[in-house]
Design a protein that fits this description.
Strand content: 5-15%
Order of helices and strands: EHEHEHEHHEHHEHHE
CATH topology: Rossmann fold
Largest sheet: 7 strands, parallel
Radius of gyration: 18 Å
Shape: globular
CATH superfamily: NAD(P)-binding Rossmann-like Domain
Number of strands: 7
Distance between the termini: 36 Å
Number of helices: 9
């Protein structure tokens, strides 16, 4: 894998998946990385130390991407500090309690629904558009999505995030067309229910049920994904080998999205 780009901004990189992506890019040769956080400066400093150990230098940028002015300004700040922005990756996700609400909850909070759109679709539109202006020799834009949440309706408390992620996938396609002439590729990556990240904020019985579901055969590769699985694909998309891949919503889920809910699992498994 060869990543020729030297500067990167990863929003939501103080912890979880964003941190894993930052460390992976540093390992693969990206020299200067901006670590973004909203409130967790100490977590961001930990990420900074990890990328430095991997051979990169880094800067910290702070701000709430739910605010459109802040979202734009932090990209500009990062680009100024880094001397450019060849790679932009959006990995922001608010704490579960801030966006999680059953669609028929008696006290449904419209603020939670709006926050999902503000931190996902709108932030991606603003940040990607701003970052692209600093991609002078081509570049890579990636949004962390969850495509299944926009296609289905079974995970009821995801009612805000599902449509917001669907909008992000769509925005990615529009930007892929707009920026192709400049050598900039735009894709979204859709993890399945992977270990770490958002999953650690759910009750243990929820995590256990998802693990059992994956191992039972609903995920053909027989396990839940890891943060490393997702970060590796993001790095691949940043590489020169992925230079002709753009406008896609890639499901990195071990094949779980291939399964058909109309049929019992026993009728789908080979053998």
């Amino acid at each position: 894998m060869q990543i020729k780009f030297q500067t990167a901004l990863i929003t939501g990189s103080s912890r979880g998946l964003g941190r894993q992506i930052a460390v992976k890019l540093a390992t693969e040769g990206v020299k200067r990385i901006a670590i973004h956080y909203r409130t967790g400066r100490s977590d961001a400093e930990t990420t900074l130390s990890l990328i430095e150990a991997a051979g990169a230098s880094g800067v910290l940028v702070q701000g709430d991407v739910a605010d459109p002015v802040v979202a734009e300004n932090l990209v500009k700040e990062a680009a100024q500090k880094l001397g450019g922005c060849d790679i932009f990756i959006q990995s922001v996700c608010p704490p579960l309690g801030e966006i999680y609400e059953h669609v028929m909850a008696t006290e449904f909070s419209l603020e939670k629904w709006q926050l999902a759109f503000d931190t996902q679709a709108r932030a991606f539109f603003i940040s990607a558009r701003t970052a692209a202006k600093f991609m002078r020799g081509g570049g890579r834009i990636i949004g962390l999505s969850y495509t299944q949440g926009g296609k289905t309706g079974g995970w009821q408390p995801w009612v805000g995030m599902g449509p917001a992620k669907a909008a992000m996938d769509s925005i990615g396609r529009y930007f892929a067309v707009a920026l192709g002439q400049y050598g900039v590729t735009v894709n979204t990556v859709s993890p399945g229910m992977s270990d770490g990240g958002l999953m650690v904020q759910t009750p243990q019985e929820f995590q256990d049920a998802i693990k059992e579901w994956a191992q039972s055969g609903w995920t053909p590769l027989g396990r839940r994904g890891t943060l490393r699985d997702i970060a590796d694909v993001c790095a691949l998309l940043c590489s020169d080998e992925a230079r002709f891949l753009t406008g896609h919503a890639l499901s990195v889920d071990g094949g779980s999205s291939l399964m058909n809910s109309d049929f019992p699992l026993a009728l789908q498994l080979p053998g």
